[in-house]
Amino acid sequence: MKVEVKVPVLAESVAEATLGSWLKKQGDGIKKGENLIEIETDKVVLEITAPEAGVLAEIRRKEGADVQSDEVIALIDTEIQANAEVTAAVISADNGKATNAGISNDEHEAVAATSQAQNGMEITADQNTSEAHAAKTGPAVRKLLKENALSADDIAATGMRGRITKADVQKHIDEHDASMSEDVPDQMAGNDNTGSDMSASGRVEKRVPMTRLRKRVAERLMAAQQQNAILTTFNDVNMQPVMELRSRYKERFEQAHKVRLGYMSFFATAAVEALKRFPIVNAFVEQDDIVYHGYFDIGIAVSSPRGLVVPILRDVESLSMAGIESQIAEFVDKAKENRLSLEDLTGGTFTITNGGIFGSLLSTPILNPPQSAILGMHRIEERPVAVNGQVVVRPMMYLALSYDHRIIDGREAVQFLVAIKDMIEDPSRLLLQV
Questions:
Q1: Handedness of CA 292, 297, 303, 308 (dihedral sign)
Q2: Among residues 32, 3, 80, 399, which one has the least CA distance to residue 238?
Q3: Which are the catalytic amino acids?
């Protein structure tokens, strides 16, 4: 019996995916649930595992091919596995005495040959699995190690429980490339497979194809600029009250909830309260209609090895600050290891992005369609400000709200941002919801 290996059902917004490298060759033995290949969509990298044990009888789509949802990409022959198991059982039952079981000498030899072939196949599979476990790596990491001819022993692990992440491997590669930069012209000369070219002056250029995610991000950014009337309003916020509150309770918070207290939970909670007061900011345009959301799903922009991704915090109005921080921490770990699912990235009514973690002082964030607004946070720096007629130094942060001027008026955008500023500068308002 042959079982089909199919592309998983993709989200409605994802038209197709690209196949990565096959981790098994045609004819290899495989176990049920064993990873066969990764596929890259516009949003995430997904693993396709074996639905049944057997032999990879046919690979229908090659690495790098574009595939559709539910498309058959390979076939697994399960009969070879079943026959081998029956044969092994027979041999075990008679302790190798085939004639006592009524099996002829010719049949015995055939049975033994089948068993030997199957045992060899199982040993190979067990060895591969054992090596993978020893390296404490996931399929995506093993693929990257293989592509760059690296050993897991050479990589410094930063993941949970000593696991090596793709970011760890990429950092190792980048550091190696930097150390070899002086020798690049000599190494690349005459090599036609590097995607690099050298001019007569000896200056090197390298051509690398965009990933599917990067191409999709580029398309969405261009569409956002062309299809929306984007305007940005700015304000600044005194972070001292939040910083003092966080400093006072962060240890007790972490002990009680097993998660660090960051700034994002304050801003996410403040954003929800502001969205309740100005529901148009939580709405979007659909043809000639304005669609209002009665819920608050906040997208939190995080960095991943593949680029910027925006996982969604669902029903933030019902989450505690500990719940918000826990989900954000989980998203960050998933993003580092490319484990975000399509469900994690689908939907959202409003987005928050924090360029401050990269050192940004001020920026104009671009909308994440079909949403109509996005809040940009920035780095905190001490600046002189006037307080009650006196010049004092305070830890200040610039805030930016980009919005679709087609449905959000300037007055509403400014008042929305001021509401967030007021709640951050007086965090007790978050508790009292005033």
A1: negative
A2: 399
A3: 405, 409
Confidence tier at 294 by pLDDT (50, 70, 90): very high
Q: Looking at the DSSP assignment, which residues form a beta bridge with residue 284?
A: 291
Overall average pLDDT of the 69-86 stretch: 76
177 HSE (CA, 13 A, CB side): 8
The Cα 417–Cα 401 span in angstroms is 7
Residue 155 is predicted with a pLDDT of 83
Q: pTM for the whole thing? A: 0.63
Tokens standing for residue 24: 């098994």
Sole residue written with tokens 């001019």: 199
Q: Which residues contact 389 (CB under 8 A, 6 or more apart)?
A: none
Could you give the CA distance from residue 279 to residue 67 in angstroms, rounded to a whole number?
A: 40
**Beta carbons within 10 angstroms of residue 26's beta carbon:** 12
> In sequence order, what are the residues at sequence separation of 6 or more whose Cβ sits closer than 8 angstroms to the Cβ of residue 196?
188, 204, 205, 206, 207
Name 203's Cβ contacts closer than 8 Å, sequence gap at least 6. Answer: none
Question: Looking at the DSSP assignment, which residues form a beta bridge with residue 55?
Answer: 29, 77
Which one, of 341, 384, 342, 383, lies nearest residue 361 by Cα? 383
- The rounded distance, in Å, linking the Cα atoms of 29 and 44 is 28
Q: Judge whether 363 and 190 are in contact, CB under 8 Å.
A: no
Question: Strand 204-206 vs strand 196-198: parallel, antiparallel, or unpaired?
Answer: antiparallel
For residue 348, give Cα distances in angstroms to 55, 293, 302, 368: 42, 10, 14, 9
- Sheet containing 45-49, strands listed edge to edge, beginning at the edge strand earlier in sequence: 45-49, 35-40, 16-19, 66-68
Distance CA 265, CA 254 (A): 14
For residue 308, give the amino acid letter: L
What is the rounded CA–CA span in Å between residue 27 and residue 59? 10
Q: Residue 403 in 3-state DSSP?
A: strand
pLDDT number for residue 115: 47
Residue 206 · residue 191 · CB < 8 Å: no
Work out the average pLDDT over 268-281. 97
